[in-house]
Design goal:
The structure is a homotetramer. The first copy, chain A, is α/β, with parallel strands linked by helices. The first copy, chain A, has a single domain, classed as SGNH hydrolase (Rossmann fold, 3-Layer(aba) Sandwich). Helices cover 53% and strands 12% of the residues of chain A. Chain A is built from 9 helices and 5 strands. In chain A, helix 3 packs across helix 9, helix 4 runs parallel beside helix 6 and helix 6 runs parallel beside helix 7. Chain A is globular and about 70 Å long. The two termini of chain A are 38 Å apart. At the A-B interface, helix 4, helix 5 and helix 6 of A face helix 4, helix 5 and helix 6 of B. Chains A, B, C, D: InterPro entries: Ester_Hydrolysis_Enzymes (IPR051532), Lipase_GDSL_AS (IPR008265), SGNH_hydro (IPR013830), SGNH_hydro_sf (IPR036514). Chains A, B, C, D: Pfam families: Lipase_GDSL_2. Chains A, B, C, D: This is GDSL-type esterase/lipase family protein. Chains A, B, C, D: Keywords: Signal.
C-alpha cells in the first residue's frame, strides 16, 4: 500500500509539473527595432530566458523596426492578441520622437497618449496583464544634451502617468539608463555604454534590460 | 365610398411624402479646419444648403482644425457615427502633409492609407455611404513649385486608389483646384484665387467647393 | 592770473567731460526677436540703460526676428560693423534649434560653430570686443522635458567652448535661466516665469537679462 | 634661308601647341555627393574627359557629400579659389531641400539665394567664369508626386533667376532630367532611369550629365 501511495504521489507531482510546463506564462514583448533584435542570440529576450525559472515562461518577441505607438495599435490584433498572451510588455517611444527629426512623421504628444491608452485598453479587454516601459535613450550623454532628450523626457513622463493612472507595472528604462550612465559614463559619451549606436542595445545593454524585465515579471506572480 | 377611399389614398400618399421630408438625407462633412470653417455663414457647407433641393438634406459639419487622418479615426465614434449619418464626406490630408514641415508630426504615406481604410471600413459598417475628397492645396501656384506639391500629389493619388479599390465616389478637389487655377491664376500667385492663405477657402473657394459637393451628392440619389 | 588758471582748469574739466560724453562705449546687441523686442520700453536694452552709469554707454539694438547665426553673418556688415561698435553682444541660437522643428531649416551643429566663429573673427578684426551669450530657453520646465532642451544644451555648450577657446566673456543665460527657474518655478510651468510664451521675455525676464548684461559690461571696463 | 624660316615656323607652331597644352582650361566642379562620385571611373566628370578635345581641359572635382549652398560658401577659398580655376560649375541644391525632411536642417529659400549669390560674386571676383546648374532630382516620378518636387521646382527657379540676373550660363538639369524621364520612364518609376537611388547617378545618368556639361563648356569658348 505504501508503495501504491508513493506511486500515486509521484503521479500527482508529475501531473502538476506537466500542467506547469503545459501552461507557462506567455509573455509577448511588443515594440520596435530594439525588441525585434531582442530575440536574437544574446538579445535581451534571449538573455531573459536564462534569468527566469525553467519552464515557467514562454517569451515571444513582437518587435518591428521603425514602429511607433500607432503602428503597435494597427497590428496588435494579428501580432499580439492572436497569441493569447498572459502578459504584454509594451516598449515603444523612440521612433515617435526620433521620426520628428528623421522624416517629419513623429507622433504628437497628445496623440501618443490617445493611442497608448487605446493599446492598453484593448490588451486589458483581452485579459492580458500589461507592463509599460519608458523609451531608454537616443544618445547616452548624461548632461541632457542629446538632441531628443527633451522629448524623451516628456514622452517618458506621459507613459509614467498612464501607468500610474491605470495602476500598471512600469519598467522605467529611461531613468534606469540615465542612472547607469551617470555611474559608468564619466566621459559623457553618446554611445558604447549600453548602446551600440545611441539607440540599439550592446551586450551590456541587453543584459541590463533583461535584468529589468526579470524583476518586473517576478512582481507579477 | 369610392371617393372616400380615394381621399384616404391621397392622404396616405401625402403622409408618405411628409415622412420623406421629415427624413432628409443626413450628410456629415468630416475633416479639418477647412471643414470647421465650412459651417460659418458663407462657408462651403452653408453655401451648399442653397444649392440643394429644399428639405431633402441635413448637413452637419464635423471639422476640427489641425486634424490628420488618425485624428478622424480617433474621434469618429463620437463625432460622426453617433449622428447616424446617411452620407459621410471625408476631406482630409492637408495636415498629414503639412505637419511634416511645421511640427515634424506628419503622417507616413503607408500609415495614411492604413488609417484612411480603417475609417472607410468603419463608416461602411455603420451603413453610411462614404464620399472621398483629395486635399485641395497648400499654395495655389500652378507650376508645381508650392513646397508640399509633391506630397499632396502623392497623398491625393493614394486617396484616388482607395476610392477606386472600394468603388467609392470621389471629389477630386486637388485636380479641380489645379484646373481652376490654370485658368484663373495666370500670374502663378500662391494665394488669393480660391484660398485666403494658401489653404483656407476664400469666397470663390467656398462657392467652388460647394458646387463640387452638390454634384457628388446628386449622384448618390 | 589766478582767475586765468581757474578758467583754464574749468575749461579742461569741461573738455574732459565733453570727451567722455562724446565718446561713450558703443554697445551693439546683435541677435534675434528677443533682442528686437529688447529696445522697446521695458525691454532688456531699455532697462539696461538705467542700470549703467549715465553718459558712459550708447546701447544699440540690432535684433531681427527669426534670425539664426548665419543671418547674423550675412547682415553684420550693414547692421553692426557700419556702426563702429566698441562692444558687440552676440545672443543667438534659439532659432537655429527651433527652426528644425518649425520649418525644417534649423542649423547643423557643426555649421553653427563655423558661422559663429566667422562672426566672432570678423567682429574682432574690426576691433570690437565680443561678448557671447547662450540661448536662454524654449520652455521653462525645469525637468529637462521641454522639446528642444537637448539641442539647447548642446548648442549652449558649443558657445561656451567658443568663448573659452577665444577667451571671450560669456553671459551664460541658459544656465542663469535654469537656475532662476529651479528657484522660482516649483510647478514646472513651461512659461510665465521669465518668458511670456516659452521664448520671449516678460517683465521679470527683461529685468533679469538687463542685470546679467550690466554685470558683463562692468567687467569690460 | 627658306629652311631657316621653315624651322622657325615649326618652332612657333610647336611653341603655340606647348602653350596650349601648358594652359588648358581649368574647370572645377563644385558640389555635393553627386559631384563627389563624379570623379570616379564612369562618373560624369570622368566621362566628360572623353567628350572634350584632348589637352584643352583640366577637370577637377570639388564635391563633398551632404553639402548645401552654405557649405560651398564656407569652403570655397580652400577647395575652389586656391586652385585658380578658369571655370567653376556650381551644382548644388538637393541637400538644401532634402535636409528639411531628413534632419530639419535644410536651407530657407531666401537664405539659399543670399549664399548662392555670395558664392557667384566671390567666384567672379576671382575672375572665374561661373556656370550654374539646377538640382536634378530627388525621385524620378514624372507626375510631380516625388515628395520634394515642390521645393526642387522652387529652388531650381531661384537658380534660373540668379543665372538670368547675372547673365550666367545655366545647365538646367532639373528640366533636362524631367524631359528625359517623360520619354524614358513610362511606368512612373521613382529610380533606375538616370539614378540608382532617386538622387545619385547611374550609368545612363552619368553619361547624360557629362553630355550636358560638354555642351555648356563648348559655349564658353
Amino acid at each position: 500500500m505504501t508503495t501504491f501511495f508513493r506511486v500515486i504521489a509521484l503521479f500527482c507531482v508529475g501531473a502538476l509539473l506537466a500542467m506547469t510546463t503545459a501552461n507557462p506564462t506567455r509573455v509577448v514583448f511588443f515594440g520596435d527595432s530594439i525588441t525585434q533584435a531582442g530575440v536574437n542570440p544574446g538579445g535581451y529576450i534571449d538573455r531573459l530566458k536564462s534569468l527566469l525559472p525553467a519552464n515557467q515562461y514562454e517569451l515571444i518577441g513582437a518587435g518591428i523596426g521603425g514602429n511607433k505607438i500607432y503602428d503597435l495599435y494597427l497590428r496588435m490584433d494579428d501580432d499580439v492578441l492572436a497569441k493569447k498572451p498572459d502578459v504584454v510588455v509594451v516598449w515603444v517611444g523612440v521612433n515617435d520622437v526620433w521620426h520628428k527629426a528623421s522624416s517629419g512623421t513623429g507622433t504628437d504628444a497628445d496623440k501618443f497618449v490617445r493611442f497608448y491608452e487605446a493599446v492598453v485598453k484593448k490588451l486589458q479587454a483581452a485579459n492580458a496583464r500589461v507592463v509599460l516601459c519608458t523609451p531608454a535613450a537616443i544618445g547616452e550623454k548624461t548632461d541632457m544634451s542629446n538632441q531628443q532628450d527633451g522629448d524623451l523626457n516628456q514622452y517618458s513622463q506621459l507613459i509614467r502617468d498612464i501607468a500610474k493612472k491605470n495602476n500598471l507595472p512600469l519598467v522605467d528604462l529611461r531613468k534606469a539608463f540615465l542612472d547607469y550612465n551617470l555611474k559608468h559614463n564619466p566621459d559623457n559619451k553618446e554611445k558604447g555604454i549600453l548602446t551600440t549606436d545611441r539607440v540599439h542595445l550592446n551586450e551590456a545593454g541587453n543584459q541590463f534590460v533583461a535584468e529589468q524585465m526579470q524583476k518586473v515579471l517576478a512582481t507579477l506572480k
